[in-house]
C-alpha cells in the first residue's frame, strides 16, 4: 500500500511540513481488506442512504468495509488494553462500550455513513450490539431556543444542551445498564416531549452530529474526550452547498408537502424560489456554522473521509498511532 504523508489540508499538518496523518488513495484503501466479504445487499444499502447520497455496493466495498474492519481492530485493541489494565489494577473486568464520533457539515452525508457503519459493525462477531445516537436529540427545544434568541443559530454549538449530551455519553462509557436520550423529530423540527431513545449497554456506540468534535472549554470535559475513535466527513465547501440545495429541492417536493412539517411553508415555492431560499439558509446559517465551528474540528478526528463532487470518497486520511 502506498500510504503517503498527508499534505493536502494545511490544518492537518505542522509548520515543518510534518503531519500526524497518512493520506491513502481510494484504490490503496480498498486493497486493505480484500478478503473481507460484503455483508450488505443492494436493497439494504438503498435503505441506508440519505437524500442525494451516492452509495452503492462498489462504494461500500471500497471504502466502508475496510473502515469497518479497521474500527473492529481498534475496538478489539481497546478492549484488550482495558482487560490488561483491569488485571494490573486487580479490578473486575467490566466491559464498556467503544464510542465512535462521526462529524461533518450539514448535507455532507455523515448521517448515512453513521447508519452504514452501524450496519457493518454489527456484522462482526465480537461487536453484535451497535447503537447509533444523533446529537439532534440534545438540541434545546424550539421554545427554549426562541427564549434564548437562538432559533437562527440552530445547529451552532450553543444551541445544544452540552451538559446533557456529556452526561449521556459518560453514562454509556461507564457501563450503565440503561441510558435514555431525548428524541428529535425532523418533521416537527423539534424535540418530541415524553419520547426517548433507550440504549442498553452496546458493544459500540456511534454518536453522530455537527459539533461532536468540539474541543473542551478551559478546565472542562468535552464529549469528544470520551470518544475512542472519530470520523470527519469532508468535502469542498462549494460542493457541500450544492448538495444542500439539491437536498432542499428534494425535501421541498417530498417531506415539506406534509402539513405537519415545520417547513411546510416552503412547499408552494417554485423551483427558482426554492433554490434562492436554500442558498439563503446556507449562507446565513449552515455555511457560517461550517466555517466557524465544524470545519475547525477536522484536524481533531482520528480519520477523515475526503469526498469529491460526485459524493464518492477519493481519499482517506488516517491519524498515525
Task: Describe the fold and architecture.
There is one protein chain. The protein is of the alpha/beta class and 321 residues long. It has one domain: P-loop containing nucleotide triphosphate hydrolases (Rossmann fold). It has helices at 26-30, 42-48, 57-89, 110-121, 142-148, 162-173, 237-253, 271-294; strands at residues 4-5, 21-25, 98-104, 130-134, 179-185, 190-199, 204-208, 229-234, 303-307, 313-319. It has an eight-stranded mixed sheet with strand order 1-2-10-9-8-3-7-4. Helix 3 packs across helix 4 (110-121) and helix 7 (237-253) crosses helix 8. The radius of gyration is 20 Å and the shape is globular.
Instruction: Enter the CATH topology name.
Output: Rossmann fold
Number of strands: 10
N-to-C SSE string, H for helix and E for strand: EEHHHEHEHHEEEEHHEE
Identify the CATH architecture: 3-Layer(aba) Sandwich
Oligomer: single chain
Mean pLDDT: 91
**Unreliable segments of 5+ consecutive residues:** 1-10
The top level CATH class name: Alpha Beta
Total tally of structural domains: 1
Numbering strands along the chain, what is their spatial order in the largest sheet? 1-2-10-9-8-3-7-4
User: Strand percentage, roughly?
Assistant: 15-25%
CATH homologous superfamily (4th level) name = P-loop containing nucleotide triphosphate hydrolases
Structural class: alpha/beta
Shape: globular
Radius of gyration: 20 Å
Q: Percent range for helical residues? A: 25-40%
